[in-house]
Specification:
- By secondary structure, the chain is α/β, with parallel strands linked by helices.
- The protein has a domain of about 160 residues: FAD/NAD(P)-binding domain (3-Layer(bba) Sandwich), CATH 3.50.50.
- The chain is about 25% helix and about 30% strand.
- Strands 1, 2, 6, 7, 8, 9, 15 and 16 form an eight-stranded mixed β-sheet that branches.
- Strand 12 and strand 13 form a beta hairpin.
- It is globular, with a radius of gyration of 19 Å.
Length: about 325
């Protein structure tokens, strides 16, 4: 039996940020991560300067590929808009591994199945015990399923389904592009270059809207691939998109019950305008850690619901 003051279920950005902040404040913590090494996660890998500020790092501190994006092109219902910006793109396999290593806390490879509350403590799969537990395991987080499902229901209208792929492809212009509600698609599509000659492309949309139209997200993926080919962008025959589901921010119930906390996608915190998940994940992880360390309430009141302003007016990092 392994005992720790805090157990964090999930070693992605939310869990790693939480562990890092707990370590800084002298609180014992361990991470339970179901995969020993991070594979490429379906994610555009877009981070704002606010993410780096939250993690107290400068772009030069990041040891892997970090591409600075200085121009952003939007297309909203067919209307094209271009803006100067200062954003960054990363490869999630590199970023997540680096954040996890940076925490300095023990990481156990363990797929959590069941979390049981025992008074003021928690038992995880009859193998781990703790006083505080943090659910950072994404949309399918077992902490949410075990402790929060009944008190923080998820709104069906907030569910976003995505398909994406990341392939070798060099974009000399390094311009990211976003499409919203293009050709009646109930969602968005993206094109995000990465350092080292990679490109991430994908589509995401509201699940209930696609059900209403009786059209699957793969239909929109194929349509998007045709659009890219029209602009001389071909992902090749080996393209194999992967899917991910997440929830836009909906405050439907508490994110703190007893000594249990939800952060990141486990709490459904993606921004309602841009669907950005990494920023809210990092920020909520740090906020939960401070609440535990300082024995103060954990709320999302200070966590923004929108991210467009930070993209268009990002500040300096």
């Amino acid at each position: 039996m392994v005992n720790s003051e805090v157990i964090i279920v999930g070693g992605g950005p939310a869990g790693a940020a939480c562990a890092w902040e707990l370590k800084r404040r002298g609180v014992q913590a361990v991470i339970l991560e179901r995969e020993p090494f991070h594979a490429t996660k379906p994610c555009a890998g877009w981070i704002t300067p606010a993410v780096l500020r939250s993690l107290r790092i400068q772009p030069r501190d990041y040891p892997f590929g970090l591409l600075t994006m200085k121009r952003l092109v939007f297309s909203v219902r067919g209307v094209k808009l271009a803006f100067p910006t200062r954003q960054y793109s990363i490869r999630r396999s590199e970023f997540d591994t680096w954040l996890l290593d940076r925490t300095g806390v023990p990481v156990f490879t363990h797929r959590v199945h069941r979390v049981i509350r025992q008074g003021d403590s928690y038992l995880v799969d009859d193998a781990f015990t703790c006083r505080f537990i943090v659910g950072a395991g994404g949309t399918s987080c077992p902490v949410y399923a075990s402790l929060f499902k009944g008190v923080r229901p998820r709104a069906e209208k907030a569910l976003i389904l995505t398909l994406e792929d990341e392939v070798p492809f060099r974009d000399e212009g390094c311009t990211s592009r976003l499409w919203f509600f293009d050709k009646s698609f109930p969602g968005y599509a993206w094109y995000v270059p990465k350092e080292g000659g990679y490109l991430n492309v994908g589509v995401g949309g509201k699940s209930f809207r696609m059900k209403q139209k009786h059209i699957s997200i793969r239909f929109y993926w194929k349509s998007f691939m045709e659009r890219l080919r029209e602009h001389a962008v071909s992902l090749g025959e080996d393209c194999s998109p992967r899917g991910y589901a997440y929830y836009l921010r909906q405050d439907t119930g508490p994110v703190h019950v007893g000594n249990a906390y939800l952060v990141g996608d486990a709490a459904g915190l993606a921004t309602v305008d841009m669907g950005e998940g990494i920023g809210p994940a990092v920020q909520s992880g740090i906020m939960a850690a401070r609440a535990i360390a300082l024995r103060r309430p954990y709320t999302l009141d200070a966590l923004g619901r929108y991210s467009l302003w930070d993209i268009l007016m990002p500040g300096v990092c």
